[in-house]
Amino acid sequence: MNISQNNTDELNAVISIQIQKDDYLPNVEKGISTAKNTATIKGFRKGHVPASIIKKMYGNSILLDELNKVLSEALSKYIEDNKIDILGRPLPIPSKDVTLDINNPSDYTFEYEIGIAPNVKVDALNNNLVVQKNVITIDDKTLDDEIEKLRERYGKLLNPDRAEGEKPEFEKAELNQELFDKVYGPNIVSSLDEFKEKVRKELQDFAEKSSENKLKEDIYQTLMDKTEVKLPEAFLKKFIKVSNEKPIEDEQIEAEYPQFEKGLKWNLITNAIAKENDIKVEFEEIENFSKEQIKAQFMMYGGGITDEMIDTFNKSMMAKQEHVKKSYEGALEQKLFTFIENQIKIEDKSISFDEFFNKKEA
Q1: Helix (H, G, I), strand (E, B) or coil at 119
Q2: Facing residues of 16 across strands?
Q3: Which of 47, 115, 198, 260 could form a cystine bridge with 235, CB 3.0-4.6 A?
Q4: What is the three-class DSSP state of 124?
């Protein structure tokens, strides 16, 4: 067997694999022998089917399976041994010269197209990068507006028997203990001042979380803008086409490719940062990330769950491979953003609640 690589440019290459008969024939003969002993064919006792019949009926199929196995192992080993960082997977190049015939075994040459991952350097982290962080203030007007919304939400519908198309009319709830109990539960809040303070605290928590998310968005966009990542576009579009479970038109690939490219570019940037700075995620961190996500989901629906229940549910979810994969990616991204924030300069910018959210929606 002979394997060679021809780089068409820095991001594209063709790997050629020349297979001699000796590379696959012994295992093909073993496969025919195994089939001879296990095949059930009318007119023959099991294990007594002539090899010639097995060869005639299944020979080319056995030959194809063995070639695929030899090719797959050789290709994977070559890529691993030569430390080639590929994108997607190798794509076989169709050839009209290859004809499989179990009665006339030959030497074959197969070619595979590969897309090579670029060498990404995230220089922006070393250039005194400055990113602004919004510090959102909760003024009295914002607090009063939120309380008015709560009064409307828990108010009384005045025209329940209204005609079709008639606008519903509400009477706002009074600012009293009945409203406090409806919003936060019995006897959690016992005065207007406590009620206002709790509403303000919830607004502040929401604002801080929104500010953190916006900071991450800005860091993401800044690194994307300042980091050059060249990609083998033609190869990747071909990879998307052949990898899709259902037939996909070229027009759809063209429309969806920019989003695919963004995701791949960010993945390469984060991988480069993690590799250069030896950032890894331990299994315990994956478990903790999963647990926090589960806890946050339950809190969205009102909470009411104990730590023991969360632990039990988390253990069940961590038995699912897809959940572990997503939790790993989330934990890694969380760790990466913490690292990045420590490498750059973050400047606080005071902004009102109304200005921040209206600006984001604009």
Answers
A1: coil
A2: 4, 111
A3: 115
A4: helix
Domain boundaries, the chain: 2-116, 123-228+279-361
Residue 287 pLDDT: 95
**Partners of 351 in the β-ladder:** 136
255-258, Cβ contacts within 8 angstroms, sequence gap of 24 or more? 257/233
The burial of 175, by beta-carbon neighbours within 10 Å (0-12 exposed, 13-18 middle, 19 or more buried), is given as middle
Token pair belonging to 284: 């315990």
- Its pTM stands at 0.80
* Percent of the chain residues topping a pLDDT of 90: 72
Task: Read off the pLDDT of each residue in 134-151 and give the average, rounded to a whole number.
Answer: 95
Residues 77/15, Cβ–Cβ less than 8 Å: no
Cα–Cα distance, 183 to 189 (Å, whole number): 9
Rounded to the nearest 5°, which phi and psi values hold at 254?
-60, -40
- Rounded to the nearest 10°, the torsion over CA 79, 83, 84, 85 is 120
- Confidence (pLDDT) at 95: 83
How far is residue 193's CA from residue 100's CA, in Å, rounded to a whole number? Answer: 84
Backbone angles phi, psi at 197, to 5 degrees: -65, -40
> Is 2-116 assigned to CATH 3.30.70.1050?
yes
The overall average pLDDT reported for the chain is 91
Alpha helices per DSSP H over the chain: 21-38, 51-81, 140-153, 177-184, 192-226, 233-243, 250-276, 283-300, 307-317, 321-343, 353-361
State the Cα–Cα distance between residues 49 and 35, nearest whole angstrom.
9
Rounded Cα distance, 177 and 352, in Å:
30
Q: Which amino acid appears at position 156 of this protein? A: K
Please state, in angstroms and rounded to a whole number, the distance separating the CA atoms of residues 50 and 36.
7
Segment 196-218 shows an average pLDDT of 95
Q: Do 179 and 173 form a contact (C-beta atoms < 8 A)?
A: yes
Residue 5 to residue 158: CA distance in whole angstroms: 78
Compute the average pLDDT of residues 88-116.
90
